[in-house]
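Deviations from the work plan: none for this task. Representative record:
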Amino acid sequence: MLAEGCQRAIDEHDLPAHTMDLGAKGCVSYRKEPLTNYRDFLETIPELFYASFTWMINRGLFMTPGDEEQWTISVQHSEEDVRKYVDAYAGFCAELAA
Amino acid sequence: MTDVERLKAKAAEIAQREGAKLLDRTPGSESLHQRAIKSLPNGVASNFQAGDPYPTYLRHGKGSKVWDVDGNEYVDFHGGFGVNVVGHAHPKIVEAIRAVADQGIHFAVTTESTVALAETICERFQLEQMRFVNSGTEATMDAIRVARAATGRDKIVKMEGSYHGHHDSVLFSVVPEADVLDMRFNVGAEGQAWYTTEPTSKGIPHVLKETVIVVPFNDADAVAQAFADNRGEIACVILEPVMMNIGLVPPQPGYLQALRDVCERNGAALIYDEVKCGGTIAYGGPPSATGSSRTWPRTPRPSAAAPRSARSAARRGSWSGSPREPRSRARSTATRSRPRRAWSRSPRS
């Protein structure tokens, strides 16, 4: 739900990014194509992550502080928590693309 | 202006505007930072927590929420880098802590609870035996030592840009910049798929660089070539089966099985570092993950992946030189050269 929501926002604004998740962990990587190793990671755009970090924390969403990290969804997170993240991230994508 | 340049310019504008807002509403964090830098390097308990100009300091958490020292509420998607997969102050955990708090918590003697927990973990992760350690650093350090003890070899293979804690053997190629990648420090012939490189941190003996072979993740051929070029010298291959020092990168189909095969052919251990990609991915860790076309060979984790002689060595304690840990442990003084991470961190060049 979280990864799908973020991916929808990325797709809507055709941003150079993609989501990846597995179990409780996931992330947005700022390259269109999925990563296979560290060299691919160096092709991501960290400036976009750091802008998203400030945007999200000012909207009540506490994220890991680096683009190499992932989100964690705990057993106590609600759908409302996830929606809040997705809505804020959609706002960020719209602002970035404006 | 290209699309990427336009996006970077817009991102800088957002970061500047939102960064100023963040500073305005976190005066308590700024104040605590001024106090903290007097007693803690960078004002934090770990360099991973550092921020520029200061990090957001938290006061408490409950459920899915955390609150900073200024009273601002957040939904926590940080989750202690994955540790808090049960959230904060979960009622069952609070109850369990309260139940034992007045019964003593440390004896340096194994208790019934220790055995019960070990049984649960062995069942969950399909292990023959397990050893409790204090951190991921200690876990990978011990796993590598067991592999070296069992094989009588010194060299290890690790993935480019991977993090396995901060002990000396693995602080190589953690976050290499583009200009130190590739074969710049290669000691072999052109076309060699592996290389050695300088330590990531000061304070690590340079002689160790000859013991650490670096290969790209998802490249089984590179590992095979490393074994061929270092015949009889490699004790183990260590990796996160889902690489998490660069976002979240799953193994390509067949990759883990190929590593398992090459390790078996060469009598080396295959070590899975599941500090971050273990229980957060699936009940039994990566091998039990489902729902994708990825293949997960039943590759055992460190304790079981090591040859039987390694498990025997671990039981005897011979791998640490003594069945007991030294009474005084040197404090880690390593200074990580990983960039400080914050909303205003300098981007990679």
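Chain B touches chain A through 74 residues (CB under 8 Å).
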